[in-house]
Design brief:
Distance between the termini: 57 Å
CATH superfamily of the largest domain: NADH Oxidase
Number of strands: 8
Number of domains: 2
Strand order of the largest sheet: 2-5-7-6
Helix content: 40-55%
Bound molecules: flavin mononucleotide
CATH architecture of the largest domain: 3-Layer(aba) Sandwich
Radius of gyration: 25 Å
Oligomer: single chain
Length: 342
């Protein structure tokens, strides 16, 4: 009998014919069907690699956006299921393997019970594991002034200042600007025809949003989030998007981009810590940037202006992005061979 079959048998023994919410027999059985195979695979892969990242990814699938993904099953019952699963998995393993699986299982318990003791994961580790990018935000929810101030404080100067040569700026996008940009905050699905692209560029109001979606327009609904931060960099007015020189701006554009990304992560952490969610938004039509102008009192080299490069959309997430919680077993650490040149 497989572990899945044995676990389902245990469920039928302990929760026979339970039809009342929560912990209905059918929900418990379907939880097993949906999850057990992946969980076992993750434990086994971590055992084989001596790592914990597969378990972490598996946890993240069941806990995205820092929320448990089932309301139908009580936490104690979910933990009971997990305990039974780990027990069965450990049955014919040796002592060392048993101990290793136990430490992996501790990660489950820590995350699900929200316990913080010496051996548990830090807030940051939990966040990195469980955060999701959201495509839809609650339109009735507003980010209040206190939270906005905290988010802006996180984005303001604590993070890479590049020796006080910040060549990026963070601004709350005003509602009027958002409204003007909104029709162009999209990309295209691969099946969008050139005709659709042209028509959309010319008149984004020719169809409803739903009709455009059918024609292959991919709307970035996260742009409707209550708080949108624009991350801007200097661009030359000639439209070339050329790199700047260190005479024009002291820190290189490449280093500036890395710093901007680090700043975004710090800002995302601040938002998440307050129970908010976020999504980065880079895929938009360049036309969006022609709907407004930026002004600054700061000195700029002749022929350069600030232009938003990427947006960070913040609010109460309703629907996580589809690709976010896909199982991602691909490792990217220590995969390259560095050969010293002869
Ligand atoms: C720099 C950056 C730009 C992104 N731009 C967009 C975008 O324009 N539209 C969108 O729907 N998602 C965008 N995303 C979200 C990704 O498509 C993806 O859903 C997200 O990164 C998945 O989360 P993960 O990277 O934590 O797995 C962006 C993500 C990053 C990091």
């Amino acid at each position: 009998m497989t572990i899945l079959e044995s676990l389902k048998e245990k469920v039928l023994e302990k929760f026979p014919n339970q039809t009342l919410y929560p912990n209905k027999t059918k929900d418990l059985l379907s939880y097993c069907d949906k999850n057990v195979e992946l969980m076992l695979e993750a434990y086994e892969q971590d055992l084989a690699e001596g790592s914990d990242r597969h378990t972490k990814m598996m946890i993240s699938q069941h806990y995205y956006g820092n929320r448990r993904q089932t309301k139908n099953i009580d936490l104690e019952v979910e933990l009971w299921l997990q305990t039974e699963l780990v027990f069965m998995l450990s049955e014919n393993k040796n002592k060392v393997e048993k101990a290793f699986i136990a430490t992996l299982f501790d990660k489950w318990k820590d995350v699900f019970k929200g316990e913080t003791h010496e051996t548990s994961q830090s807030f940051l580790e939990n966040l990195t594991m469980n955060r999701a990018s959201f495509s839809f935000f609650d339109e009735d929810f507003k980010v209040d002034a206190v939270k906005t101030e905290k988010i802006l404080a996180a984005a303001n100067g604590i993070t890479p200042s590049l020796g006080n040569n910040f060549h990026y700026r963070v601004d709350v996008l005003p509602q009027e600007t958002k409204d003007a940009m909104a029709p162009f905050m999209h990309s295209f699905y691969p099946d969008a025809t050139d005709e659709t692209k042209k028509l959309f560029e010319e008149n984004p109001h020719a169809h409803t949003k739903a009709e455009w979606t059918k024609l292959g327009v991919c709307h970035n609904h996260q742009f409707d989030a209550p708080l949108v931060l624009a991350y801007s960099i200097p661009v030359p007015d000639d439209g070339s998007y050329a790199h700047w020189t260190t005479e024009q701006f002291e820190t290189s554009k490449d280093a500036t981009f890395v710093a901007l990304g680090l700043n975004m992560w710090n800002t995302i952490c601040a938002a998440e810590e307050m129970g908010l969610n976020s999504c980065c938004l880079k895929a938009y039509n360049k036309k969006a940037l022609t709907t407004f102008k930026t002004k600054t009192s700061a000195e700029m080299p002749e022929g350069w202006s600030w232009e938003p490069f990427i947006f960070l959309c913040i609010g109460k997430g309703l629907e996580a992005k589809g690709d976010h919680r896909k199982y991602k077993p691909r490792g990217i650490v220590n995969t390259l061979d560095f050969e010293v040149a002869a």
